Write the structure tokens for this entry.
Amino acid sequence: MLEVPKRGFEKAEYERRLGKIQKLMFDEQMDAILLTTQVDIEYYTGFKTQFFESPTRPWFVLIPLDEKPKAIIPVIGESGMRDTWVEDIQTWTSPNPEDEGISLLTLNIKALMKRFKTLGIPQGHESNLRMPLGDYNKLISNLDGINIKDATKILRYVRYVKSPAEIEKIKYICDVASQGFEDLPSLLKVGESERANCQRFKNHLLSLGVDDFPYLISGSGQGGYGSIIMGPSERILENGDIFIIDTGCVFDSYFCDFDRNYAFGYASDEAKKAYEVVFKATDAGFDACKVGNTTSDVFNAMNKVMQEGGALSNSVGRLGHGLGMQLTEWPSNTINDNTKLEEGVVITLEPGMEYLEGKEMVHEENVLITNNGPVWLSRRASPELPIIV
């Protein structure tokens, strides 16, 4: 496996991110952007904590047009934020439902409205607001005379193109998970549940160097599975089953996301053919992963192979997506997304098809876009459906 990357980032990485978003903010005429989610806050500050699992306290970071980020956070997080490159850290004692940092946040926002009188807040597709809606309404009512503008487009674009340091982490977690999948056939056991088999896989991945498993699903069924988002379940695996495991493992906040399919004992001709079709579709998608092409070009390349291969339908709605600090990031590989591929972009290729009524076959790999052509980050799956005997 690859050498373990250094955890965290140098200060220059955060300075680069800040400079990039500030240039886009100037173009969009925003004086500041308000961040409230774990991923956005960590991306621009380096503040890493599991405490976001608690919904009790909101957290705020402001990205000014021409200054370093400002943190307005519960006092419980002050010492952790002091370990980042952020210097302006203001706190309040929380929980305090009567004023959960809103007064302090309001004062800071108003002080930054120097040029355009405009505050950016992510409002678009795949964004979310990690604060009570009542508090958000109170904040907006306090900002009379200040324009609110959607910052989704520029925030997601900065994260879309990965730096070499980010790519190193994604390469590593993909490599670790790939090794785990290559070892998996020796760990799978007929007569045990999906859950038991997946737990054994988790334990093995932990031994290889995975930090965590925010996402690990499975599905199984005689001759094929009907869902790729529900398991693992208590269903007992039997000969004749097709079994999928899809994992989103994490190393130092960065994800891999790919799956593998297995048959127990034997596989039907229909299942073997479906596997061959989605494998070839992945190859077609990979060939389309060229700088200047679009996510829709990638979708069309994969979809063409599946349609010619007899696909009855595609219930997933897209054939892959962006990848990084979230299991799924913008953009989506769809017929009308049309996002241009650039060097440093990481995406998944995920062709999926219904090949019999109620039976799906989904295949997924992770790919890096470079000026010299695409690069597999996940080690390529077997070209034929693996059969566990």
Q: What stands out?
A: The mean pLDDT is 97.
